[in-house]
């Protein structure tokens, strides 16, 4: 088994504790586009009350997975349960409990922002008018402008306002901040976290911007090879996974073997290892016997993503 697969297998063997009933339960999900199999017998259990960052490389299948979960794309096999009942098709009462921000928002280009929000509000029993007004002001959205005339970033802001306003129990966002400038991203993240302070709310969002996941203190779910490879709290990943660097002038023919190594490579004078729960005394002993200097670092999420995705 390649080392990266070993790494993610090791992480998967210690799954996140799930104190609440799952909001989402996926079993054996299969999805192909013609001969391209994107999701392969994917299992995923998402507990309530968490912020979950869905990470994966370009083309890993994040958008496909999110669309399948919401019934927006037909599945080839397996089952999906939302709030404890099978997800068969979009619509119905349960959909009022779900907010979705798609990767691109290009509906109703002829409608003005105010008319669009009023029209949408009419479909929902719960619609937070006060929050809508606050976000419109904070994010400088002109309610008299037509949606088709908004910039990409402004459209994304509108999509976020529209998704949050009905006070959903589950908020699903597909790269929601890709077009937002850093200021708007920060504002969005703090709104999102404020929303999450209410008990039982769950957020799933895919992103490439690892700093946003760090700000949200999210659980990280890694999608690779058509499956969720592991889901673990970011704080736990950062606490337990360390980047261990041995360096010496003569370099290395291969990286030293240490307990808990998930991945390693040699780079000039350095042997760089990603190690779970390293035993510091053993590493120091090994460094001394190999006449090497030792550095133990806490990896950034970006480092982890590069190593594991
Ligand atoms: N409608 C479609 N028809 C055919 N292939 C598709 C379709 N939608 C997605 N795919 C393929 O499925 C795979 C997964 O795509 P998807 O958009 O889900 O990935 P992603 O992880 O969201 O990527 P990114 O990070 O680039 O947004 C890709 O190989 C893509 O080409």
Automatic annotation (TrEMBL):
PROSITE patterns: ABC_TRANSPORTER_1, ABC_TRANSPORTER_2. GO terms for molecular function: ATP binding. CDD domains: ABC_DR_subfamily_A (cd03230). Coiled coil: none annotated. InterPro entries: AAA+_ATPase, ABC_transporter-like_ATP-bd, ABC_transporter-like_CS, ABC_Transporter_VariousFunc, P-loop_NTPase. Keywords: ATP-binding, Nucleotide-binding, Transport. Residues 24-250 form the ABC transporter domain. It holds the Pfam family ABC_tran. Gene3D superfamilies: P-loop containing nucleotide triphosphate hydrolases. SUPFAM superfamilies: P-loop containing nucleoside triphosphate hydrolases. PANTHER family: ABC TRANSPORTER ATP-BINDING PROTEIN ALBC-RELATED. This is ABC transporter ATP-binding protein.
